[in-house]
Specification:
heterodimer; A: mainly alpha; 47 helices; B: alpha+beta; five-stranded antiparallel beta sheet; two-stranded antiparallel sheet; 7 strands; 47% helix; globular
């Protein structure tokens, strides 16, 4: 603002004053003032400009207050613009909200429904949990508004409140139920949104509405709604979708409720127009519903038909939906995947990433022990090929999960994990690394030592191969170092100097990574310790020596500690070393003397020498009250919340302080400073103690300490209790795994009867065979035998599994003969394995078919009492509505009128019509010229936004 | 629910953004950039769906449609149906076309507030409000009619002094 005249006014203002002053008549003055007013009113535009500026990413916060002010304005245009701006600018916790709440309250009571709508719009965005009570009564009142648009928005606003804070509107649930019977179908449709959320949380309280939902859906599907609700010749598809979603929730696991739905869902399957996009959306929703409710064979068949249509379609969108639907349905009827195997493999090789990922999700869900190798291999290949870290992490963790669950052999498992670690090592959870180490240490817990040894030596071999590669992730290097340290020399195949040389290389190559160096040094110590214990002479390699020297001067106390320990261990004699570092004892339990009883003699001695007896901290509290209060205060403020309850007694202090309490009560330990030093040093020393049985005093104390202060990295392989439980879990999985092989075998053999289709490349066939168990008999046999061959050649633990697998396959054949039609229980089943084949005792379709065509009265009677009252009510309302709805001047959706008529059919049938759109290409060209002038779309050759759509 | 609606051109310039959960402006810019990054890396004849977990957090999908120089992008969660969202984009574009007669990017740039009005009649608080473009048009026309009417009645707004100070 260039100020002139010293009053700080702008030149424009001076001009205004001047021109008014110079005006020669009242009329001229009026003209000038009106012009000025027009200019000033353009501040709406300023606000819009502000919104625009902020959208482009610039700070517009200085103008927020003006937007707020604008909402106070009486003019509808200004008010609406103000509301638009505040909803875009502010969030519900912004300081300015407090200035708006009052306006909103007032506007919600306005006579002008547009003002009310604008306020409701703002309510959705700007009201937070604390301000809900301020507007709730008004919003609830609006549920009875005469305009259906307002009722609709009021319901949605309440829905928003529910999302914000479920408790605030819980008492209004009955309103939602009531509004379901609103005489405007749009309002009913809006009510479905909050009901869907409510039902998702607690389906059981809404079971009584099943009948109503079903009858609404039936009416919608039968086109009882006014024509205005049609969309692309589909009756109210969005309402149908919403209802199907609700029914899916209500019918899940509830046979009785599901049986009510079968007819209507079947009807929709039949009636739905599968040529339009929205028709397919409804069909997809039907499949979701069918796969969620209690299964019905006819519906499943219809769903399978639709899925095959989706998968055969050329549209990637439909393929995507088909894959998604398949992965839903496969839980209920696993055999359906069989028909579509080639389509699935096509999708897997599709260039479209989205489709590929969806397909991997499907594969993930249908993984069993028979196809885990193929699937995980594919996943890893894909994982290597992508750069998106987020998805890489996800797929890596899925690989790990599948491998842990279904691994056919330990050898394969280790190889797979190696690959995962190699390519996504830093992305996977560190727990996975510990799991892998534990698995190598413990084997699969079977009492077969040679198998374990073979496993370890194969692991060591593979690691020695990998270790030279550059850029290995840190987590993987840790695993490698640990395994080499524990088992590198165990088989006698590699000499200590070879292993230590490799370890030194690792430490050298990753000199910036302290954790890896620490692992490497500890591994070195283990190797030397085992050598000494075995009575061999230890010659430290020169590079190792220099490494140790370098590390003993390291900045990291941890590394220093390890280096000194290594030096100390090397000088000990065989017996001492054996006690400190027993060979292959990483899985032994470490006893922890929590009472620190070994300190008793020391304490006695100190007491005799006149030391103060130890008083537990809670008894001491009288003395150090103040200090405790202070620490508690600090603790509280750190959580940033107000405390409303009274202060507790100060016995809850920081965790480290509790440990003295658990000591022998009569002892006197010098409180903080002195233990802290041993803690520091000894917890580091506890890494070697991971592998010892722990009976000497020194180490016992360390272990006790380690639990409190030790770094999680070290404590987790050492914490024996958690290890043993999770190990059991692993065992459990592997056992169930074996049984699942038998089931999959049965299925494989039952697949045999089906024939292969078409000429497809043999590679794809092979892939299909390994994924799905083979498309034909000739295909399947060799593949399964090759499986067995692979197994018998794969080492070690295989042995124990091999015979079982053979046995299970024979039992599979037997069971196939016994009951060829009955699908075997699958791991993926939801605990209702026989459902698919055993038809419900009374077929609801047959039962209802007779009732379909007769009058409503009979079907209503069939639905029961609730239907008679509530649903009949709704029906009458809707059947009345069309007349009134159409008489109100609704722009005719059919293109019978006016000039731009040809636009509409062009749009509604999307890209079928090829003719150029619009009656006025010249107009479009002009626009384009303007566009270019403005530099808005420098790239575009296309004057018409819709040419793509139409052409 | 629908989390966000983004209209941007093929150079990545946002033309209309609406986030139904509040996002600070910087975050919005970042999201727009990342969405654009995802979209322009996609080939021509692929599906219109993208899993958006890495951009918008868990359980989010993204549906987009490419018209001439513009991308129309809807971001939503699992409570919506992808194909239906695709049609909702169609509804929005159809409505724009009816409103502007041969809509092009420039119409969208210049009629920014009208665009918001239209969008607000289609999506309300993240839920689908109306899917018939005729109905939307009717509502929008009603709004502009009443707006001009109310403007002629109160020619001079009460708080005229506010803006420039």
């Amino acid at each position: 603002m260039g100020s002139q005249g010293g009053f700080g006014q702008s030149k424009e203002f001076l001009d205004l004053v001047k021109s008014i002053g110079e005006a020669r008549s009242k009329a001229e003055e009026d003209r000038i003032v009106l012009h000025e007013i027009e200019t000033l009113k353009r501040r709406i535009e300023f606000i819009i400009r502000l919104v625009y500026v902020e959208m482009l990413g610039h700070d517009a916060s200085f103008g927020y207050i003006h937007a707020v002010k604008m909402t106070h304005d009486d003019s509808l245009l200004l008010k609406r613009t103000g509301y638009l701006a505040v909803t875009l600018f502010l969030n519900e916790d912004h300081d300015l909200i407090i200035l708006i709440v009052n306006t909103i309250q007032k506007d919600l009571k306005s006579d002008n429904y547009l003002v009310v709508c604008a306020a409701l719009n703002a309510v959705c965005k700007l009201i937070n949990e604390e301000t809900i009570p301020a507007v709730l009564p008004q919003v609830v009142e609006l549920l009875g508004h005469s305009k259906e648009a307002v009722r609709k928005k009021a319901i949605m606003a309440l829905h928003r409140f529910y999302q914000r804070s479920p408790s605030s509107v819980m008492h209004l649930v009955s309103n939602f139920r009531k509004k379901l019977c609103d005489n405007d179908p749009g309002v009913m449709g809006a009510t479905l949104c909050p009901l869907f959320d409510l039902i998702a949380v607690d389906a059981n309280s809404y079971k009584d509405l099943v009948i109503s939902f079903v009858s609404i859906l039936k009416q919608v599907a039968e086109r009882r709604l006014p024509k205005t609700y049609d969309y692309h010749q589909m009756p109210a598809p969005f309402i149908q979708i919403r209802l199907l979603k609700i029914l899916a929730l209500l019918g899940s696991g509830d046979r009785q409720a599901s049986e009510n739905m079968y007819t209507v869902v079947g009807d929709i399957f039949r009636k739905c127009d599968s040529t339009s996009n929205i028709g397919n959306a409804v069909l997809y929703e039907c499949i979701c519903c069918v796969s969620s409710i209690y299964p019905n064979p006819k519906l499943l068949e219809a769903a399978a038909d639709v899925i095959s249509r989706f998968l055969k379609s050329d549209s990637h969108n439909l393929k995507y939906m088909g894959i998604d639907a398949l992965s839903r349905l496969i839980k209920i009827s696993p055999e359906i995947a069989e028909q579509h195997q080639l389509a699935v493999i096509d999708c897997l090789e599709d260039p479209d990433d989205t489709l590929k990922r969806k397909t991997f999700e499907l594969l993930y869900r249908m993984t069993k022990s028979s196809n885990v190798e193929v699937i995980v291999d594919r996943m890893i290949d894909y994982m290597i090929s992508i750069n998106d870290n987020h998805y890489k992490t996800e797929i890596a963790s899925r690989c790990v999960e599948l491998a842990e669950q279904f691994a056919p052999s330990n050898h394969w498992f280790i190889q797979t994990m190696n690959k995962v670690f190699e390519h996504a090592g830093d992305l996977v959870n560190s727990k996975v690394a510990h799991n892998l180490m534990r698995l190598i240490a413990e084997g699969f817990g079977e009492d077969d030592d040679t198998a374990d040894c073979q496993l370890r030596s194969s692991a060591v071999e593979s690691y020695l191969r990998i270790i030279g590669e550059p850029k290995l992730p840190s987590a993987f290097l840790q695993v490698i170092c640990w395994v080499l340290g524990e088992y590198g020399t165990a088989g006698g195949k590699y000499s200590a100097s070879y292993i230590t040389g490799k370890l030194c290389d690792v430490a050298e190559a990753h000199s910036s990574n302290d954790t890896v160096k620490a692992y490497a040094v500890t591994a070195l110590m283990k190797v030397y310790a085992f050598e000494i214990a075995a009575g061999r002479k230890v010659d430290m390699l020169p590079e190792c020596q220099s490494l140790i020297e370098e590390l003993s001067a390291s900045h990291s106390t941890d590394l220093q500690q390890r280096a000194y320990e290594l030096q100390a261990v090397v000088t000990l004699d065989a017996h001492a070393v054996e006690i400190i570092m027993p060979s292959d004892a990483s899985c032994e339990d470490i006893e922890v003397d929590k009472n620190l009883s070994f300190l008793d003699s020391y304490v006695e001695r100190s007491l005799e020498q006149g030391a103060q007896p130890y008083i537990p901290e809670n008894e001491r509290s009288g003395m150090i009250n103040i200090c405790n209060f202070r620490s508690q205060d600090q603790h509280d403020t750190s959580t940033h919340t107000l405390r409303f309850e009274a202060y507790e007694l100060p016995k809850t202090s920081a965790p480290p302080r509790i440990s003295p309490v658990s000591l022998a009560p009569s002892t006197e330990l010098v409180p903080v400073p002195e233990p802290s030093y041993p803690v520091e040093t000894h917890h580091v020393a506890s890494v070697p103690s991971v592998s010892d049985t722990g009976s000497t005093e020194l180490r016992l104390r360390l272990d006790g300490v380690q639990k409190k202060w030790g770094r999680p990295t070290y404590s987790s392989p050492a914490s024996s209790s958690s290890d043993s439980t999770s190990l059991k879990a692993v065992n459990g999985v592997t056992q169930s795994d074996v049984s699942s092989t038998s089931t999959s075998r049965t299925r494989d053999s039952s697949y045999d009867s089906r024939s292969a289709q078409g000429e497809i490349s043999s590679e794809k066939k092979k892939l299909a065979a390994s994924l799905f168990g083979g498309p034909s008999k000739t295909e399947k046999r060799p593949s399964s035998t090759s499986h067995k061959v692979a197994r018998s050649t794969s080492p070690a633990v295989e042995k124990s599994q091999g015979p079982k697998a053979v046995a299970s396959s024979t039992t599979g054949v037997v069971s196939e003969k016994a009951a060829p039609l009955q699908p075997p229980p699958d791991l993926l089943d939801l605990g209702e394995p026989t459902v698919t084949s055993s038809a419900p005792s009374v077929d609801p379709f047959k039962q209802l078919e007779g009732l379909l065509d007769p009058t409503q009265a009979t079907s209503a009677a069939n639905y029961g009492a609730v239907d008679n009252t509530k649903a009949a009510d709704i029906m009458s309302v809707y059947s009345e509505f069309p007349t009134s709805g159409q008489s109100s001047v609704i722009a005719n959706p059919l293109p019978t009128n006016a000039g731009d008529a040809n636009l509409i059919p062009g749009l509604s049938t999307t890209n079928k019509t090829g003719h150029a759109k619009g009656p006025n290409p010249r107009d479009a060209l002009e626009k384009d010229a303007l566009v270019r002038q403005m530099g808005v779309t420098p790239m575009s050759q296309n004057p018409n936004l819709f040419r793509d759509l139409l052409g | 629910m629908i989390r966000a609606v983004i209209v941007m051109n093929t150079q990545g310039k946002p033309r209309l953004t609406k986030f139904y959960d509040y996002m600070p402006p910087e975050k919005q810019q970042e999201l727009i950039r990342r969405v654009f990054g995802v979209l322009c890396s996609r080939a021509e004849n692929v599906s219109n769906f993208v899993e958006a977990d890495s951009v918008f957090g868990p359980d989010t999908r993204l549906v987009y449609k490419h018209y001439a120089t513009l991308y129309f992008v809807f971001i939503f969660d699992s409570s919506e149906n992808e194909l239906a969202m695709l049609d909702l984009i169609q509804v929005l574009v159809e409505t724009l076309d009816k409103c502007f007669k041969n809509v092009c990017e420039l119409d969208i740039v210049f009629n920014y507030s009208k665009l918001h009005t239209i969008l607000d009649e289609i999506i309300f608080g993240g839920q689908v409000l109306e899917t018939s473009s005729a109905e939307v048009m009717k509502a929008v026309e009603e709004i502009s009619r009443l707006e001009t009417a109310s403007n002629t009645i109160t020619l001079v707004p009460k708080s005229i002094s506010g803006w420039r100070s």
